[in-house]
Every structure is written in structure tokens, then in C-alpha cells.
Design brief:
Length: about 600
């Protein structure tokens, strides 16, 4: 026993000691760099701005600097927010050091379809400056080509390829697995919510007829939008584009060239002829000066003041009108915490309340990128959104999705923007409870028994089936939440309840469809949302944007400074700004994650762009 005590203590000391040494080493390296390398990096004249997706392009700032630690190579990574990316492209249009843009997507960064759409629009505006935009790649995926197609010219490697095959949505179903382990599922959803398909993976082996209609309508509308954008940029017929996808006729570079999807088949070094045509001067080493989007943002900034909900007094002292940016980025859950990938209802409510109580804050833009989640957390945030809207203009900017609970919290706003490719609506609720009594009994030989004062004592749990009374109670609760949800939408959108019920039913719409049905007011991104907020608040050019972010713990503040120094090692002085919309690193088990009453969009849907 003494041996194991000593061994455990020694092992703990080793782990803790190693961690301390690691962080000291990082701090030491950063400190030395900061001490001896004080020269600020500058942007070379005649630079070409490369959009390479070396970094993730995401919606909201990272909550913790710990999220930037790349354990694979022990460096701090820095994703780019969509606001930074758009601001950088806008600035490059008037930056005398930037000659043009080259889109060459060879990085490993991730970006949502809706954010690609916003980048395309920003590059379209950049082209009005008269500067060039060229795209080159060894091969294009369909999503990469969607962005590249906005360029003045699109080039492709002679042995490369261009994927053009259409768009799809796929869902994973678990019923077969649950049957194998003798797990039973209790599903609750209002009768009218036939499109609320988040329950289907647990009770079916394929899409229901209603869900298939919904999904087919979505992919058709989104594909129409993508083909429309490409057709306009490339001056080709939209029906021809759809035919190419159906027939898989774009296989070789020559196919893409003959279909006018690209302008040249060439090697990358031959881009020099394009750059020379635009009189791009080479540097002293005989090379073209280049800078990536991430490096450009690092050097120029493009960031806004960051405030936590308990420190708005610091921004109230600013001598200008303020516009707050609030982020609802991730699944909506109960509680008051900060964690990347989640929106805690009470925390979001506090930020909305802080914006409402800030005297200098004249308008609020809320960037919503959420599939929904807890109905209760959504209601908590909705209440503060409604109170805020009574006092100040509120504009919603929807990212890749603002569905179910994400739409719930958006409904009270004065104005709602969505991208064409945004998934929204899904106005409905559902409940799932699992009965694992047979699983434990048949697979593990474990049984349960209880002495109680009433049949429902101890609450509903997965170790016994529901009683008839419990089932009836849950059905009443689900129906009540649905009535509340649809009532909020009717009030917020100034729409008859009959019309809301007609377009609700748990159905998901893309941005173009949502506009047709009155669920959003206009198509556009975060820049358009900020512009509308300024208009509604009657604010001229004298204003300041600020963003709500989580307060850092003392340890995170130290790590934050270390990250700044470490970034300088590579000549990149990143502001601690940004976040990552990424999949949860450690998914909860399927059963635990999906239990309870939720306002979520259809579960496990993968969009293939």
C-alpha cells in the first residue's frame, strides 16, 4: 500500500512538473523573442494577398486562449473570425501595398458554406477597386471552386481536377444499434411537428417521407443559390451547370475549360504571366511579395474592443456611439458558463442585459450560429432579447445555421439577416427518453428495483419504462413549449399565428426560403447587419464596435500573454481575438447527449457542399 501511495505521488509530481516546465519554456522563448526582436513586421509594397485557408475562418471569438494550443506540434494556432476576414478584404481594396488577391486554397483551415458566401461577396466588392483577383489550384473541391469562381480568372493544374457533382445532405441512423443492445426509445413531439426530424435517427433506419421532402427542398434551394452565384460570376448558363453535375461531365481540366468554368490550364509558376500583365513588381530577390490573409490580419489588426458582461462601464467611457456585437455560437444549453461550442442561456442573457443597461450602447448586432438546444435556456435568452429590443435596435446576423432554439432567440429582433446558405427555422420541439432496463438485464445481467412513495418518485430515468402518467405529463409539457415558441415567433415577426403554424412544424428552411416565408427580412452577412443597426439607431460615421467575450481567468491571462509572445516567434503579432466553430472534441455518448426536451434542428445532418 505504501508503495502505491509513493508511486502515485511521484507520478502526479512528474505530470505537474512536466506541465510547468513546458509552459515556462514557452514563456522563455516568447520572452527572448520579445526582448531581441522588437522590429514590427511591415507589409511589402507590391504585395499579393493570398487567401489560402491556412487558418479556420469562424464566427465568434475563442472563449479561452487554451483553445489555440495545437498539441500536435505544440504551437498556438489562431483562427480568423469572419468579421476579421471581411474587414481585411475591404481594407486591402484601398491599401496601396496590396496589388490584388490570389485565391489558392492549400491550407487545412475549415470554413462553413455560409461564411464562404460572405467571403465571395467581400471579394466581389474588392473587385470594384480595379485590382485583380485570380484563383489557382492543383485541384478544386466543389466548395473551393464556389469561392474561386468569383475571381477574374480561374486557373487549374494540367493534371488537376474540378469536382462538380451537386449537393447533398446525409443523416446517420442509430435504430439498428439500439435494437442490438435492447435499448428502447420514448419519443415526444407535437403532432404538427412532422418535420422535427431530430428524433428520427433513434426510431427509423431512413428518412421519413416528410423529412425527405424537407431535405430535398433544402438541397435544391441551396444548390440553386450556389449555381446562380457561379453562373453569374462565370457568365455561364445555370441549367448547364446543373447538367454538368448530373452527368459528371466535368472530369478533366479540358472539360472545365470547354465549359468555361476555368480560364487557363497551367502550372503555378506560369501565374507570373498574369501578375506581369497587371504590372506587379518583383522584390529584390526576384520574387513576388506575398502575404496570407492570416498574416495580413495579424499585422493590421482589424479587431474591436472586447468586453465581458460585467465590465461595460469601461466602454461607456468611450467618446462615441457604441454598437455591441453579441455572439450566440454553438448548441444552446442551460447554465451560466463559458465554453467553446456552447451557448449558455443565462450567460447570453447577461450579455444582452449588459448591452441594454449600457448607456453608450445605441444598437446591438447578435451573430447567431446555432442548431438550437435547450428550450428553457432559449426562453431565458429570449426574454432578455425582448427586453433589449424594447429599448434599442437589435439586428440578427445568422451564420451557417440559426435553427430551432437559434431561431427562438432571434425572433424578437427588429431585423434579421440570413445568408442564402443559412439553415434556419426548425420551429418546433421534441423530447427523447431512453429505457435501458433491458440493455442492463439482457447484456450485463444487472437489474434495478425501487421502494418509493409514489410511482414517479425519484424522477424519470433510463432504468425503467415511463408510466402512463409520466407520458401524459411530458406530452403536455412538449405541447406547451411548442405553443410558447410559435407565439414568440408570431409576436416577434408580427405574423398571424395561423401563418406561423403553417411554416413551423419543425421544418428547416435555407435563407432564400426563409425570406420568402417572412422568417428573415433580408439576405446578407454580418457587415449588412452592422449597417442596418447603424441605420436603425441613426448613427453616423462616429461609432465604435465592441464585442462581448468571456472574462479570462488569471491563468488564462498569463497564457494569453504567452500566446502573444509565442506568435511573435514567427513574426506574427496576433491580437488575442477569434474563436473556432469546431466539432466537440469528446462527444457525449449518443444516448446521454440526446435525452430530454430540446429545440434542436434535425440531428446528425451532414451538409455536403
Amino acid at each position: 500500500m505504501d508503495f502505491w501511495k509513493s508511486f502515485g505521488a511521484s507520478l502526479l509530481a512528474l505530470v505537474v512538473g512536466t506541465g510547468i516546465i513546458f509552459f515556462i519554456m514557452i514563456a522563455s522563448i516568447g520572452g527572448l523573442v520579445a526582448l531581441f526582436d522588437t522590429e514590427e513586421p511591415t507589409i511589402a509594397k507590391e504585395s499579393i494577398l493570398y487567401i489560402d485557408f491556412a487558418e479556420d475562418i469562424i464566427d465568434a471569438p475563442l472563449i479561452s486562449p487554451l483553445g489555440r494550443l495545437d498539441t500536435a506540434n505544440m504551437t498556438f494556432s489562431q483562427p480568423i473570425t469572419i468579421m476579421e476576414a471581411l474587414a481585411a478584404i475591404e481594407n486591402a481594396a484601398t491599401d496601396d501595398n496590396i496589388k490584388g488577391i490570389c485565391i489558392k486554397i492549400d491550407g487545412a483551415g475549415a470554413v462553413s458554406a455560409a461564411n464562404v458566401e460572405e467571403l465571395r461577396e467581400a471579394i466581389e466588392r474588392f473587385k470594384l477597386s480595379g485590382k485583380f483577383v485570380v484563383a489557382y489550384d492543383d485541384s478544386y473541391t466543389q466548395g473551393e471552386y464556389y469561392l474561386a469562381s468569383v475571381a477574374d480568372q480561374v486557373w487549374l493544374n494540367p493534371e488537376g481536377s474540378l469536382e462538380w457533382s451537386g449537393m447533398g445532405m446525409s443523416t446517420m441512423f442509430y435504430k439498428g444499434l439500439l435494437d442490438k443492445i435492447d435499448a428502447k426509445v420514448e419519443v415526444f413531439r407535437p403532432t404538427d411537428c412532422k418535420y422535427k426530424s431530430g428524433v428520427e435517427p433513434f426510431i427509423l433506419t431512413k428518412m421519413s417521407d416528410a423529412n425527405r421532402r424537407q431535405m430535398q427542398s433544402l438541397v435544391d434551394a441551396m444548390w440553386n443559390s450556389i449555381c446562380g452565384d457561379v453562373a453569374a460570376s462565370r457568365n455561364v448558363d445555370i441549367e448547364a451547370l446543373k447538367r454538368y453535375a448530373r452527368e459528371l461531365s466535368i472530369t478533366l481540366p479540358e472539360d472545365a475549360l470547354n465549359a468555361h468554368l476555368i480560364d487557363a490550364i497551367a502550372y503555378e509558376d506560369e501565374l507570373s504571366t498574369f501578375f506581369d500583365a497587371y504590372d506587379v513588381k518583383r522584390n529584390s530577390e526576384g520574387q513576388y511579395s506575398t502575404i496570407t490573409l492570416g498574416e495580413y490580419i495579424a499585422m493590421e489588426g482589424f479587431n474591436h474592443p472586447h468586453v465581458s458582461a460585467d465590465s461595460t462601464a469601461t466602454v461607456d467611457a468611450l467618446d462615441s456611439s457604441l454598437v455591441a456585437i453579441v455572439y450566440a455560437d454553438g448548441e444552446i444549453v442551460d447554465g451560466n458558463m463559458y465554453m467553446d461550442g456552447y451557448v449558455f442561456g443565462t450567460r447570453l442573457a447577461e450579455e444582452l442585459r449588459a448591452a441594454r443597461l449600457s448607456k453608450a450602447t445605441k444598437a446591438v448586432v447578435v451573430r447567431v450560429n446555432s442548431p438550437g438546444g435547450s428550450a428553457l435556456a432559449s426562453e431565458v435568452a429570449w426574454r432578455e432579447m425582448e427586453l433589449l429590443q424594447r429599448e434599442k435596435p437589435v439586428v440578427i446576423s445568422m451564420g451557417s445555421m440559426a435553427a430551432s432554439g437559434g431561431y427562438y432567440i432571434s425572433a424578437p429582433a427588429d431585423y434579421i439577416y440570413a445568408d442564402n446558405l443559412t439553415l434556419t427555422g426548425s420551429i418546433g420541439v421534441f423530447g427523447i427518453l431512453f429505457n435501458l432496463s433491458d440493455t442492463f438485464k439482457n447484456k450485463l445481467g444487472i437489474t434495478f428495483d425501487t421502494a418509493a412513495t409514489s410511482p414517479a418518485a425519484g424522477g424519470m430515468n433510463m432504468m425503467r419504462p415511463l408510466t402512463a402518467m409520466e407520458r401524459k405529463s411530458l406530452e403536455r409539457s412538449i405541447d406547451s413549449i411548442y405553443a410558447t415558441f410559435t407565439g414568440h415567433v408570431a409576436e416577434g415577426r408580427n405574423m398571424p399565428i395561423e401563418k406561423v403554424l403553417d411554416i413551423a412544424e419543425g421544418r428547416v428552411w435555407c435563407g432564400t426560403e426563409a425570406l420568402e416565408h417572412g422568417l428573415v427580412d433580408a439576405l446578407g452577412g454580418i457587415n449588412e447587419a452592422v449597417g442596418k443597426a447603424l441605420e436603425l439607431a441613426d448613427i453616423d460615421d462616429d461609432y465604435t464596435l465592441y464585442e462581448f467575450t468571456a472574462p479570462l481567468t488569471p491563468f488564462e491571462e498569463w497564457l494569453d500573454s504567452v500566446g502573444m509572445l509565442y506568435a511573435k516567434t514567427w513574426g506574427m503579432d496576433y491580437n488575442i481575438y477569434g474563436n473556432e466553430i469546431r466539432e466537440i472534441l469528446e462527444e457525449s455518448p449518443i444516448i446521454m447527449k440526446n435525452s430530454g426536451i430540446q429545440a434542436l434542428m434535425p440531428g446528425n445532418v451532414k451538409v455536403n457542399l
